[in-house]
TrEMBL record, chains A, B:
The keyword Signal does not apply. NCBIfam families: PRK06207.1. Residues 67-382 form the Aminotransferase class I/classII large domain. It catalyses: L-aspartate + 2-oxoglutarate = oxaloacetate + L-glutamate. It holds the Pfam family Aminotran_1_2. GO terms for molecular function: L-aspartate:2-oxoglutarate aminotransferase activity; pyridoxal phosphate binding. The keyword Glycosyltransferase does not apply. Gene3D superfamilies: Aspartate Aminotransferase, domain 1, Type I PLP-dependent aspartate aminotransferase-like (Major domain). This is aspartate transaminase. Its cofactor is pyridoxal 5'-phosphate.
């Protein structure tokens, strides 16, 4: 593959957070009506001013700086003492022990963990099963390493218990030779959680076919009332090669520190460390110290954060449904993935018009797979009042452009 | 290539900073004599407790945290306002302007910049010219992306003006189809600086053959008395595709913040940003704010830092030469690369014995190329007294194991 082609697949033109680099195409000729005034809301990511970083996180960072050289230069996989703390806590959270010395690596964000995990398992010509819709980087990573994507549909609409993965397609993917399965749980962009039955079936299939599973559990702490969650790694029947990814960037609002962790099969973690040595050496040494606050927040803090997010979720779901726009109620995390009706403008132009006419930034569904062009993703970890008003403007704009 | 083989080339067993993970092989049967007592010195990297981070760096970080969401979530290539500051300063330093919007990316350390630059220019089967000896990651990166390394010898010994690059070999590499040339200037591990004649010749050859040049100038600020430095990017006759890499991890002791910058050809910077989006998203947002201190240190601060390093350099060079061990005087940076005589033990075992018997950590020459197995690299950015005592113990151990 020519290097030009390799990078063609990595387009970031519609990627969340890159809106400010988007060329100011002239869309005024498509514009219907004037602007709708209101507080701008950037739903492409959570607002860490509305939901602030974990209490004590800055102090933990300052402790890291004061610790000096030994904190600045850690092993490539991260400081041994911090790995020990984190391994204990993620082991307890996920229900199965993690060996701090061999089974865990600290990375620059969960993105860093995902990159290393895919790089450690996928090379030219490898088939990789990928859920549609799912986090956009999964697909791009497979393409970058020369892998071949085998799609597995997530039929999330109209369900309220199962996530809706098509297990027949997953088995067919394994039969066709897929060596790796990458998925997020809770699913990004829909916020649905895989049921115990689904996770057990995934684990059983992967084990039977000898496939590696990479499960991105970034949002698995922020779970709403009535949601039960199954950690694949805690099942007795699970694949031999399994990497679980988590990090404090979302529910804990620590994204500015770029921290993530991957834990699982020791030989894969070892590969990931070898690669991290030439990718970025290590997660910033001082930043690593912030992980001391992770899973150690003040009593009741996470519960309150969940309660506040659930209240926003419920108001936004009501607003969308009240306007006749279908949306599944997310069971965890802070993404909403409503479906828009047929519009007079293309989906990317609508997102641009939305930004210019209402000050609302949403991520087009095309980023998450080819079957969700008519949806937009909203990260509703925002100021409650501003978010409700912004979604009302969004709904009003949909009405304007509806066919 | 099988993925197992791909990762075989990425061994980190002897990589600097990974000594604590090195399996405790039993080397006592090879041990001659007892231990030599003294303050332990880890020459694998600089000691940021002996040479502290730039004054004001922590305050700049704190300002970043207080700025909140807009600093936590920057564009993937880094905050626009910080890029603007950095572009102005590196443009002035290197003698040619840098467009902040199109020609610069902020990365997690210079390692992050090097990774992205090689990934943006090298793919399966591409030939890449690599200097021997040079920074170990250059070779590993080329191998990881399936490139083919074409070695170019740096005959640094016995010279005191030219770095010693074999320009005939470089031209042969280009003739043989090398599309990319990666090198560090000042050279890591030897500390030699390429002369104006050499840099002009490299630029001319690369331009003539249409090759891309990636030049790692990490240490180009810490230059000793009498050293002149030529920035390749400021030459009027230079290659069309050129990336220059710098960062504040070394001379400025800001390694704990993991910051780097790459600047040059806009289309390559664009590829690097697309890739950064799936590698780590961005350099930690808050950390980026620390770049506001870069090239803006208190008056006289860098001059004093250079003076102190030059004094250590001179004492260590005298100690090595006094014991009959050849070493070229580094013109910049803080690496020494002395040559050891024939020993009764292998070079990796000697490094282990050195660590166990004297508390001195050095990096084996094998990390930098196949022709320097008889050298060791020392980063002498250390406490002056401790460093001199440590090198005396090293020299004493060499005497013990000399054939």
């Amino acid at each position: 593959m020519l290097i030009e082609d390799k990078f063609m697949t990595l387009a970031t033109d519609n990627a969340p957070g890159q809106e400010m680099r988007s060329k100011a195409d002239n869309i005024t000729h498509q514009m219907k009506g004037g602007t709708l005034i209101g507080t701008p809301v950037d739903f492409s990511h959570g607002d860490v001013d509305a939901f602030e970083p974990t209490p004590g996180s800055f102090d933990a960072f300052a402790d890291g700086v004061h610790a000096g050289g030994k904190q600045a230069y850690t092993e490539y996989r991260g400081s041994a003492s911090i790995r020990s703390v984190v391994a204990g806590r993620v082991g307890a959270f996920t229900g199965a022990p993690v060996d701090a010395n061999e089974e865990l690596i600290i990375t620059p964000g969960t993105q860093g963990a995902l990159f290393l995990a895919v790089a450690a398992t996928v090379t030219n010509g490898d088939k990789v099963a990928i859920v549609q819709p799912d986090y956009f980087a999964n697909r791009k990573l497979v393409q970058f390493f020369g892998g071949e994507m085998v799609p597995v549909i997530l039929g999330y609409e109209g369900k309220d218990h199962d996530a809706g993965i098509n297990l027949n397609e997953l088995e067919q993917a394994f039969e066709a030779g897929a060596k790796v399965f990458v998925f997020s749980n809770p699913n990004n962009p829909t916020g649905v959680v895989y049921s115990k039955t689904e996770i057990e079936a995934i684990a059983k299939l992967a084990k039977a076919y000898g496939a590696t599973v990479i499960v991105d559990q970034l949002y698995s702490r922020l779970r709403y009332e009535g949601t039960s969650y199954t950690h694949l790694r805690a099942l007795s029947e699970r694949p031999n090669n399994l990497i679980t990814i988590m990090g404090p960037s979302k529910s804990e609002s620590l994204s500015g520190y770029r921290l993530g962790a991957a834990f699982g099969s020791a030989h894969l973690i070892e590969r990931m460390e070898k690669l991290q040595a030439i990718v970025s050496l290590r997660a910033s040494g001082y930043n690593q110290a912030v992980l001391n606050t992770w899973f150690n927040e003040p009593s009741g803090w996470m519960e309150e954060r969940i309660r506040l997010h659930q209240a926003i979720r419920d108001d936004l779901v009501s607003t969308f449904r009240g306007a006749g726009l279908p949306v599944r109620v997310p069971q965890a995390g802070s993404y909403l993935f409503p479906k828009l009706p047929a519009l007079e403008v293309g989906p990317h132009d609508f997102v641009k018009l939305l930004r210019h006419q209402t000050g609302v930034i949403a991520t087009p569904g095309s980023e998450f797979g080819p079957h969700s062009l008519d949806s937009v993703r909203l990260n509703f970890s925002q100021d409650h009042t501003a978010a409700v008003a912004a979604v009302k403007r969004l709904v009003e704009l949909v009405e304007r452009y509806k066919k």
